[in-house]
Structure formats: C-alpha cells, structure tokens
C-alpha cells in the first residue's frame, strides 16, 4: 500500500493530510495559504506535497450541499483537481466532505483554542477528517476514481 494525500481546498487556504503507508490512519501536515490569483503556484505546491510524502494518489474533499447536490464550490475543486491531474501521474479521487470543517471546528473549540489559532489549523484538520473518512470507507481499495 502506498500513501494517500488528502486535500481540503478552500478559497484562501489548502489543508493537507497524508495517510500512513498501510492506509489506516491520516495525519495532518499543514495549512497552506493560497497564492493570490496564482492557481498554477497552488497546483505546483499540491503536487510538491504529493511528491514529498510519496503519495501514489490524492483525494480531494468534494463539497456537497446538505441535500447531496453539487454547487459552485464543487466546480472549483473539480477545476483545481483537473489542473493537478495534468501534471501528476497518480490517481485522483474525490470524497464527500460535508461537515468536515464543522467537525474540525468542533474539535478545536473543545480544545479551547482561540479563533486565531483555530484559523491556522482548521483546514489541516479538515483534511485529516476527509482523508480518515475516505480510508475508513475503503474507497481507496476500489479500482475506480469516484465521488462518494
């Protein structure tokens, strides 16, 4: 089994997480502040993270509305993932990220972190939540790229 990079893509920041080599647990890596109006720089950074952590695949959190439909935010993720796939040889997958940021915020609030500290790590923790749910679902063992 090889490592999987989890990405929580936001308008201002990108959260990164990586699986262990067995694909059992997700660990937070960092929160990256996006380059203003430079999507190519953001794409290159995401690819460099995949290479740095020897990730054979990337899973993007896919935003969905509470009714399960896809909205404008999901188009942004698909567009970004397409740019990544043009320069990355590994598998690209998507996983439902509904409430991942809410879950991450709850954990950080329970830890009594103030809002400034939460803002710095919430995207990283959201990436962990997304990747861990993906790993727990067994979706990474299927042969197809899918939106779950």
Summarize this, please?
The chain has 148 residues and is of the alpha/beta class. The chain contains 4 helices and 5 strands. It has helices at residues 39-52, 72-85, 100-110, 115-137; strands spanning 3-9, 13-19, 26-33, 55-62, 91-96.
Kindly report how far apart the N and C termini lie: 21 Å
Strand fraction equals 15-25%
Largest sheet: 5 strands, mixed
Taking all residues together, what is the mean pLDDT? Answer: 84
Overall, the morphology is: globular
Describe the structure.
The protein is of the alpha/beta class. Helices cover 42% and strands 24% of the residues. It has helices spanning 39-52, 72-85, 100-110, 115-137, and strands at 3-9, 13-19, 26-33, 55-62, 91-96. The chain has a 5-stranded mixed beta sheet, sandwiched between helices. Helix 1 packs across helix 2 (72-85). The relative contact order is 0.22. Residues 143-148 have low confidence and may be disordered.
